[in-house]
Design brief:
364 residues, alpha/beta, five-stranded parallel sheet, 30% strand, elongated
Length: 364
């Protein structure tokens, strides 16, 4: 016999196999969720439930017998808003952070990660769903056309990944990320039309916890872009780590660091891709004001490279700029390679010059 109280801090997830001898009870009291796991329970064991008072909402999954025992013991509780009586083995997954529970019949449990698509365009919903459905590792949990609809789905089901449009009704995707999703720690990918005016919004989203961004696909290019989009989405869920919410310091509240470069005459070269924009901000805001010349090649669309440079420049005591063809490298400056271009460093005597060109891409 046991009544086990599932706590929010035990782990990310806890799985149970339910049969006719056990059950799960989820209830809300004073806006706090509680989850109890019953196993081989008897009538006299239910005295433990007396300490749970002022219950507002109830959900039950398990055998009819355990349900009847609970109803008999707790007559003061409200009616169950949801109850499922199982007839076969059922897998239950308890999500420690949200307190939610997801149920699936044993034998039909999918190992695929569940993706919530949030976009007010029916066309983009269908295209993203088509791309995700072709994956062996991902499946579409649901689609939502607004932040409100997305929130309702997230409260009931915990997706493993969210694709989030920037421009939507009610509020834009960046505000939704900052005001609601940040506390959920669900990996989120921004969906962008890659227009110039979206650059600052995308950069803000990445600095607030979004993992990366992808360009909105079109029907004509679907076959071409599907492999890369899937690779980026699958790589995020495979990391199996939460996005850690961190408020990156502004220039005024910059982290004081003892880091110092012993030599400013050299050159530091950085290459980054998915998640790189957030990592660059994390690193650069911790650099001292005096740094060697640095060159960054970031996998980024052309219209976003200047927005990235401008944002980093506003946060750092040194200069961060989009690299220009022909300019010479200077100390205390970080050069961001223009998107969709190739960048080389040419040496002229003791000086180093930037060469921005249209050479064929390497590794895409």
């Amino acid at each position: 016999m046991s009544i086990k109280r599932l706590l929010k801090n035990i782990s990310d997830t806890t799985k149970f196999i339910l049969n006719r001898d056990n059950a799960i009870l989820v209830f809300e009291s004073n806006n706090e969720k509680e989850c109890l796991f019953f196993e081989n329970i008897k009538d006299e064991d239910l005295d433990k439930l007396e300490k749970f008072t002022n219950v507002d909402k109830l959900k039950f999954v398990g055998s009819q017998e355990i349900y009847d025992l609970i109803i008999k013991k707790q007559k003061e509780w409200p009616s169950f808003e949801k109850k499922i009586f199982i007839e076969q083995l059922t897998e239950a997954v308890f999500y420690a952070e949200s307190g939610n529970v997801r149920f699936q019949k044993k034998g039909t449990v999918s190992s695929k990660k569940k993706v919530l698509v949030v976009d007010d365009s029916k066309t983009i919903q269908k295209l993203l769903s088509r791309i995700i459905t072709s994956s062996k590792k991902l499946e579409v949990l649901a689609v939502a056309d607004s932040p409100k609809a997305a929130r309702e789905i997230i409260e009931k089901e915990r997706p493993d990944l969210i694709t989030l449009d920037i421009h939507m009704p009610e509020m834009n995707g960046v505000d939704f990320l900052k005001t609601y999703l940040g506390a959920k720690h669900i990996p989120t990918v921004m969906i962008s039309s890659v227009s110039m005016n979206e650059g600052p919004l995308v950069m803000e989203a990445l600095s607030c916890g979004a993992h990366t961004y992808i360009q909105k696909p079109s029907v004509d290019e679907l076959d071409e872009v599907t492999p890369e989009i899937l690779e980026r989405l699958e790589s995020i869920v495979e990391i199996k780590q939460k996005i850690q919410k961190e408020v990156f310091p502004s220039q005024e509240k910059r982290v004081q660091t003892s880091l110092k470069f012993d030599c400013l005459e050299g050159l530091i070269v950085i290459g980054s891709s998915t998640g790189g924009t957030q990592a660059l901000q994390h690193i650069f805001t911790r650099f001292p004001s005096s740094i060697p010349a640095m060159v960054v090649v970031q996998h980024i669309p052309a219209v976003f490279s200047k927005a990235l440079a401008d944002r980093l420049d506003s946060l750092c005591p040194f200069t961060v700029k989009e690299a220009e063809d022909g300019e010479f490298l200077q100390k205390n400056t970080i050069y961001i390679a223009p998107g969709d271009k190739q960048l080389k460093i040419l040496k002229r005597g003791k000086e180093k010059r930037i060469d921005v060109n249209d050479d064929p891409p390497l590794n895409r």
